[in-house]
Design goal:
alpha+beta; nine-stranded mixed beta sheet; two-stranded antiparallel sheet; 15% helix
Length: 216
Amino acid sequence: MIRRLILGALLSASLSACQTAQQPSVPVEAAADDYAAWYIGSMPDKPFDVPLVDRRRMDAKYAKQTVTYEGPEKPGSIVVDIDERMLYLVQPDRTAIRYGVGVGKQGFSWKGMASVGRKGVWPAWSPTKTMVGIKPDLPRFREAGLDNPLGARALYLYQDGRDILFRIHGTNEPWSIGEQVSSGCVRMLNEDIVDLYERVPVGATVYVKRNGRYRV
């Protein structure tokens, strides 16, 4: 049942902001089993269960793991390395929890320092004016669900109290983890963003680095 639900949601989803900026590596006309094979079950959640990805289909380096971390950022900080396609949640013992991510394609990536201004559980989604300008046929609103571009959770990044329209969020395109294909946001497997969401409070500092630097 979960495989049929996921397949239906993926086939009905249109590509949009914070999702793949171009066609995904698994084409829409691919056989149903190609989509279904990415999933092995689900994790209980509300109001929707979280689809679980078959990680055997992914490079093992993108699996959630604890690693040594020598950076200067304080414990509790999130560090996104665009070049590595990794997100680090800094821990107090010179380690970090590391997750594989997908990032913005060239020309869409953002770097800098921000904070988590708010958090969303199975959030609704609307495209930015920029995205609508680039792709006028985008839907103007999408309710929460398996086909929503923001997935199961979203962290909304703010600077000086203002939403900068940059998100760390879940994705229904697990094959894009480790790739540079999105319209700018950082996407994670849905089970990984659920884990990160539970560990990170509103107000946490976020550093997004490119070429080893986050300062613009």
